[in-house]
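Allow me, if you will, to draw on your knowledge of protein folds for a short while. The matter concerns a single protein, recorded as an amino acid sequence and a row of backbone structure tokens. Kindly check, if you would, that the fold set down in the tokens agrees with what the sequence suggests. You will find the record immediately after this paragraph.
***
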Amino acid sequence: MMKRIALAASLMLALAACQADGVSTSSTKHLAPIPPATMSLMASKGMSQNDPILMRSFKKESEIEVWKRGRDGKYALLKTYPMCRWSGQLGPKIREGDRQAPEGFYTVTPAAMNPNSQLYLSFNLGYPNEFDRAHGRTGSHLMVHGSCSSMGCFAMTDEAISEVYALSREAFASGQRGFQFQSYPFRMTAENLAKHRLDPNIAFWKNLKDGSDYFEIAKEEPRVSVVNRQYAFGGGDASVAAAVAQKRQRDEQEVAELVAKGVQPIRLVYDDGGQHQSFRQVLADNTRSDGASLAVDASARNRLGDVSRPEALAAGPQEIILAANGKPKQETSSTLAYASQKESAGQTRAGGTVQRTLAAPAATTVAQPTVQAAGGEGRSVLGRMLSLFGG
């Protein structure tokens, strides 16, 4: 009886997050080999399936990168995968049930791999980590998984998670004890930092950038610790530290120049997360408008799996121009039109690799946004935005 209660409790915890645990319909999908095309790509880059890996995710761009460590101890980018779905807003996960996908530095171990996921395959990020616990943050079962449904997780297509899972499995089988998963709100470029300079999370994001800068300069996994409730990053020698400091100075100068040129501070407000632009046209071509919601047809479900809250995706993020005090200029805002986006020329279809330089979504200026909120709540996007700012 007690075993049944324990099993029921564990299943309820899973359902509270991404519903990523459970018994799968296939007992061998976790053993699928790395696809031949990816094996050839590794060979062309001087990599092998046995080499250690590292992953980086970017919410705004909706991408996950897989890096491989070579014989010289340096990491090189193997492949970039489009994210099919993430939920919430830009910013860290704070508490259980907030639909936020984590941001920070996490370690994925062999024990975190779930071959029996209800969402095809999955692995647990290990949230909350030491930093999260130092800030009193709560939540559990935050995953990278298949299908196109998210309640605080990073979702990929089944095809993509199968490949990423196989890459992880082979690295573990060759002796890697855990790989680092770096999760960011966006790529840590000067332009993104200039635009988001008044966001309440900017200090936290600059702290994440310290780790990103180290990795991009050294091409080595930074040693992560928590000091005074902040991330601290170590490793490398004095020359690496000097190069990282120089990069930080250059980036800060570029941010200052962009601000001087008139780049306006913004905040992106999502109805509920986003997805990579390569999936947007799939939804646009296979959805039926039904008032404030969208119904996904069988064709899209066959390609993407279960798509959570497609109406929230169709709305796109609201780009809010901020005043100097960090409050929104209500008379000026824009909606990034997701559903109307066409797939960029030369870009691969959903589930495959994508180029790192992607076309920006088109923007349509509106005076006073009154788009219905997802879930039939009847709240406008402006209302949701004001609530995020405490308005």
Observations:
- Residues 206 and 237 are 22 Å apart (CA to CA).
- The radius of gyration is 21 Å.
- The chain is about 30% helix and 20% strand.
